[in-house]
Design brief:
Elements (H helix, E strand, L loop, with lengths): L1 H19 L28 H11 L11
């Protein structure tokens, strides 16, 4: 029983070490997107009327509501 447990532990350790040797971590901060700006959300600081109406329709839509209780 002890030999079986030792062999299982050894094989597990070999598997873990063998699979993790070729893995290299990416440096942090690589390939990050540009930060979000106000212009990404608004056109010159204020959305136009069609976007406001679309937002209202989507916000109060019963199908999109989680419990359809709006």
């Amino acid at each position: 029983m002890s030999v079986n447990k030792t062999l299982t532990t050894f094989l597990t350790l070999c598997f873990v070490l063998g699979t993790s040797l070729g893995v290299q971590a990416k440096p942090k901060g690589q390939n990050l997107p540009d930060p979000v700006r106000n212009q990404d959300y608004y056109d010159n600081g204020a959305p136009d009327d069609t976007k406001v109406e679309l937002g209202r329709l989507l916000f109060f839509d019963k199908i999109l509501s989680g419990n359809q209780n709006i």
